[in-house]
Amino acid sequence: MNLQRFAGRAGPPRQRGFTLIEVMVAVAVIGILAAIAYPSYADYVRRGRIAEATGELGTMRVRLEQFYQDSRPSNYGSTAAVCGVAVPTSPSFTYTCNWGAGGTSQTFLATATGNASAGMTGYTFTIDNNNAQVTTAYPGASGLPAACWLKRKSDTC
Questions:
Q1: What does the domain layout of the chain look like in residue ranges?
Q2: pTM recorded for the entire structure
Q3: What is 21-137's CATH number?
Q4: Which of 14, 23, 44, 61 is the most exposed place for a label (fewest CB within 10 A)?
Q5: What are residue 34's phi and psi, to 5 degrees?
């Protein structure tokens, strides 16, 4: 046995590692940080999905206006169930387009409805041929329908 390894030291070799208390404190700190950070992150993702939906509705409106200008006689190509342009697709929202308040092909109403599979249940945004942007459903928001697209439940028009 090589005794030179222990030369200059008193006692057995020192143990290295973390104590159970140190590990428990580290896990508790990580848990507290996660409990604070997760709701903020989920809200950030939700706002991003809302921005995507309202952006798609705005783009759809522009495409419908182009369709209106190009068609003879001028109309949005809308029926009771569809419009003259393809609706966007998204995992977060389902888009529809049909007759607007006028009930003819001279009006349209485009709608983005949140999908449950993406955690967007209860969110609904619309836009019409007059560019009226309306939030018809937003969980936790008051005063609906709102005459604008809400980004947060505390927003107002």
A1: 21-137
A2: 0.78
A3: 3.30.700.10
A4: 14
A5: -65, -40
